[in-house]
Amino acid sequence: MYTGDTIAAIATALSPAGINVIRISGENAFSVTASLFRSARGKDFSKIRSGSVSYGFIEFEGEVLDEVLMLKMAAPHTYTCEDVTEIHTHGGILVTKRVLEAILLSGARLAESGEFTKRAFLNGRIDLSQAEAVMDVIGSGSDLARRNSMKQLRGDLREMIGRIRESIILETAHIEAALDDPEHISLDGFTETLLPKVNGLLEELKSLLASFDTGKIIKDGLNVVIAGRPNAGKSSLLNALLKEERAIVTSVAGTTRDTISESLDIGGLVLNLTDTAGIRQSGDLVESIGIDRALKAAAEAQLILYLIDSPLGVTDEDKDNLKSFSDKKVILIYNKDDLVKCTGDAPLGIEHSVRISALTGDGIEELKELIKSMFLAGTLTAGHDMILTNVRHAGHIREAVDSLTLVKSGIESGVDEDLLSIDLMDAYKALGMVTGEEYRDDLADKIFSTFCMGK
Amino acid sequence: MVYEKHDVIVIGAGHAGCEAALACARLGLSTLIFTMSVDNIAMMPCNPNIGGTSKGHLVREVDALGGEMGRNIDRTFIQSRMLNTSKGPAVQSLRAQADKKDYSASMRKVLEETPLLTIRQDEVVDILVENPVDDSVDSKRKISGVRTVSGNTYPSRAVILCTGVYLDSRCIYGEVSVPSGPSGLPRSTHLSDSLRELGLPVRRFKTGTPARIAKSSIDFSKMEEQQGDEHVVPFSFENINKDMDKDQESCWLTYTNLETHKIIRDNIDRSPLYNGRIEGVGPRYCPSIEDKVMRFAEKERHQVFIEPEGRYTEEMYISGMSSSLPEDVQYAMYRSVPGLENAVIVRNAYAIEYDCIDALCLKHTLECKDIDGLYSAGQANGSSGYEEAAAQGIIAGINAALSLLGKQPLVLDRSDAYIGVLIDDLVTKSTPEPYRMMTSRAEYRLLLRQDNADLRLADYGHRVGLLSDERYEDVCYKRSLIDSEIERVKTVGVSSSKEVADFLSGFDSTPISDGAILFDLIKRPELSYEALAPLDPERPEIRPDIAAQINIEIKYEGYIKRQKIQVAAFKKLEEKMIPPTLDYDLVPSLRIEARQKLKAIRPASIGQASRISGVSPADVNILLIYLGRGDFKSE
Question: Which one of A4, A81, A188, B501 is CB 3.0 to 4.6 Å from A123, fit for a cystine?
């Protein structure tokens, strides 16, 4: 039987609503899943029967990412004839992508288009006519993916990756030229100059990876939390926002039962809205759990819509709450503007505010425009040099970071230069995957063009 | 007239031809080798040395398969050095200066003493083939023999082309252009046409050589002396535990200077390389001095090595200054170099243009895809270098023999040997220049070290029948000792006593706090398996070459493991064979460029297909699926 490495992908068309399915296939499918999945009934993964559905959680690095259903299917009676697991996520696009990332960080790689079907065919699962359709998919899909990949790469990102690759191959060529022609080209003192260069590249790539979160906003949507004191009109605001957009999705309970998540598209920018329990000091245990969760949701949000109950004005409690959001982007929303106009300066110098009536819908359009201007017109991007938006790109950049980290530790522990060169080239190839450049004879070309070799 | 039939005819007795002919004859086939000049068998027309970075690996591999080059240089070297000793074991390489005459004579003697091998001085002008028996796809033309310039026919079942740089060659310097082979030897004028008529893709390459200068005219006091290693390591594994020490000759180092460069620049329009009189494509790795000066204008000096051509000759090889400039410019330029002020030139530097074939028309066995029984090796395939030639020669010889004996062919892949990398590159990538081996071309080089070539290749050499039982048994013994000894040191504990601490501090190694495993101590950069012997009282007696293997295997364990994982992935695709008769026009969805390339090259495996430039991963996937219908569907 044809067995490949372990691959994973989101098998459903990504919808912000409802259930998304991630499929994992290959010899490590079970071990990868077992490392992330915790059964609600505390059942050990190995004890779960093939063909059965289990309810539980995906946990990664100590954090619960989602509440899921997990299907375990042992080879050979699966679509690909390999061990397969399917994870049905419930938390929407963003959560699904985070689960996928966790899987990719745990030992699977992202499947190419048509790859599950390819394996199914190679293992005799489907017939030729089906397979021919798949060949077309691979043919067109790869072109499309390449085109998309090019488009996704902003010019400055492409330029940056190109520059880093150039720098890597130049250093490698120096090592290789010296190895091939030790009498003409010396490596004396080479690693001392290489170390700061590698550190510099690592720093650049790591900060690029850090921007991955920001980049995901554009791609996966903006996490918006609606907060405010009880009865400030949070649910009404949510409904008002949703009402305007007919294409809204069913509401899905998130992992925290008392926050409600919805997604809507406001002209190019997807908002993943979470309505929280009202935040106020409370002696009631159940309510305080809800409040804790609301605060936690707020902490993960990229934008907070904070509602002021206009008739009550900005209370001390509001001011306290807003203080805890001081490191967040906040829009202050004066609700019930149709009843009472709230006057006075915005508290804590909050820059953005808007007056609405969630009940009549007045001001909702203004609010959306404000959000768009904040996040699409460059306010957000201005603070960052580069934005990385693509899971695949991030994966390859992470590989490059790993390889360069090996180079760094290799230099520090005095490893031979010819071994450093192997890791350098791994980083070079990984970055080439981001820009879609194939590796052929680049190294030999670089050696000859840069170094005067030989007899 | 028509002579008696031979099994194999080898055309050319250079480094490829000698290995090919020896392999065939030693495997029991009647073999006839043609040479333009019996006095010049295994001649070294350019540099007077064997080995060097990555080339040394090739020599070791040829030896591990049962070839002759390693043994011959061990017999005839006059200086030997291990290069890159300050670097990792994977890139250390042996290089030996040869006594050229002695090397040639010694190889000639081996050929002459080999049963079933006949040497004939004559010029082959035609390769004779039989037409296919029918017009089915599988039916191909078949070798029937060769014809010599005198019109005589020599029938044979296989022919191995080892024509070096002799096909329609031309030696050029300045305005002088001589229709000859290297060193004024006669060239072959008709064989190129015969190859074209057979439909082989013939192309034109170029290479060059520096002047030879009389030793008595050189002032060595102005140069740095370079001596050989005190302890000589042999090339051949057969000699590995023998004492190789002998009197060695020195090489000398000097430099070009700004005046040299000015002379060259002022006369650059008289260089055939620059005024268009040379059309052939030259190698980038051994550029002529005029190329170096023009391309690397910022460099103020270039190294020049003065190397002896032999013990009993005045001629010295001026390494680093190959050229095709006119004679008067050559004099001026060489004489501008310190120590060469009064240089007397014995032979001019020259460039040589020659015909060779594009090796894309060959299989990995080095047999022609379209003509059964026609093999090709060495510079005829667009490579460069004695070692590259010998490596191909032995593979072509082995495969011609195996095929005539009705046995499975021998194909070394990129994870087996540098030879595998060399041949795969030649038959997969249309190399745009004479191809030279480089360590950077071997992606699994940590596994392909010169020190373990015997461990890697003895199974092949023995299975084929070239490697003696005695040598094979030694390798098996070596292997089992390495394995058991590595396992053993994993179980040897080292205490944290005062003596141990003192011992370690002698190596500047940090003391151990609560005991350690010997295996882990060996990994420390400042320690080694050999150095730790005093802490290992139970250690059996181990030969130095075996101890070195144990040390390397342990020290580089992490990197070696990683490369082995990569090799496993590589092998999966290598093992998916593509039927040679596959009609790529029937494969849907391939991109046009990929389809053209695949049709032209007809790769043997999915792995080879994936290395063809212009074939994308998507095309490879499509091929995989298409082929899934037949051969390698589920087992």
Answer: A81
Number of H helices, E strands in chain B: 19, 22
On chain B, the residues whose CB falls within 8 A of the CB of A447 are 438, 440
Three-state secondary structure call for residue B178: strand
Structural domains of chain B, ranges and CATH numbers in brackets: 6-206+354-464 (3.50.50.60), 212-351 (2.40.30.260), 482-560 (1.10.10.1800), 576-629 (1.10.150.570)
pLDDT tens-place string over residues B494-521: 988 888 999 999 999 888 888 899 999 9
CA quadruple B312, B315, B318, B319: dihedral positive or negative? negative
Which chain B residues are within 8 Å of A136, Cβ to Cβ?
Answer: 588-589
The confidence band for B134, taking pLDDT boundaries of 50, 70 and 90, is confident
Backbone torsions φ then ψ of B155, nearest 5 degrees: -70, 150
Q: Flag whether residue B446 sits within 8 Å of chain A, measured between CB atoms.
A: yes
Does the pTM of the predicted model rise above 0.90?
no
Per the listing, tokens 């490392």 go with A35
User: What whole-number distance in Å separates Cα of residue A25 and Cα of residue A7?
Assistant: 5
Within a 10 A sphere around the Cβ of A317, how many other Cβ atoms?
Answer: 14
Q: What is the CA radius of gyration of chain A?
A: 26
Of B305, B429, B525, the CB nearest to A414: B525
- Tell me how many residue pairs between chain A and chain B have CB atoms under 8 A apart: 131
Q: Which of A1, A121, A419 sits opposite B625 (nearest CB)?
A: A121
- Identify residue B173 by its one-letter amino acid code: Y
C-alpha to C-alpha distance for B100 and B73, rounded to whole angstroms: 10
Contacts of A452 in chain B (CB under 8 A): 287, 292, 295-296, 299, 302
The contacts of residue A210 (CB under 8 Å, 6+ apart) are none
Q: Which residue of B has its CA nearest to A174?
A: B440
A124 to B445: CB separation less than 8 angstroms, yes or no: no
> To probe the interface with A, which of B81, B301, B302, B440 has the most A CB atoms within 10 Å?
B440
Beta bridge partners of A271: A222, A264
Convert the pLDDT of each residue in B42-97 to its tens digit: 999 999 999 999 999 999 999 999 999 999 999 999 999 999 988 888 899 999 99
Nearest Cα of chain B lies from the Cα of A54 at a distance, in angstroms, of 31
Residue B66 structure tokens: 């049962």
Position B229 scores a pLDDT of 96
Cβ–Cβ gap A444/B441 under 8 Å: yes
N-term to C-term CA, chain A: 51
Distances (CA, A) of B236 to B113, B389, B392, B479: 20, 17, 18, 18
Contact B365, B392 (CB under 8 A): no
Q: What are the tens digits of pLDDT across the range B517-560? A: 999 999 998 899 999 999 999 999 999 999 999 999 999 998 99
CB contact under 8 A, B622 and A180: no
* DSSP calls for B396-430: HHHHHHHHHTT-------TTT-HHHHHHHHHHHS-
Cis peptide before A76 (omega within 30 of 0): yes
Helix axes A364-375, A234-244, angle to 10 degrees: 80
Q: Name the residue with tokens 């390798």.
A: B475
> Can you spell out the DSSP letters for A329-369?
-EEEEEE-TTT----SPPGGG--EEEE-BTTTTBTHHHHHH
Asked if B295 has any chain A CB less than 8 Å from its own CB, the reply is yes
DSSP secondary structure letter of residue A46: G
Query: Considering CB atoms only, which of B440, B613, B634 is closest to A1?
Result: B634
Residue of A nearest to B285 (CA): A453
pLDDT value of residue A258:
44
- Contact state of B591 with A122 under an 8 Å Cβ cutoff: no
Residue B319 Cα, gap to closest chain A Cα (Å): 5
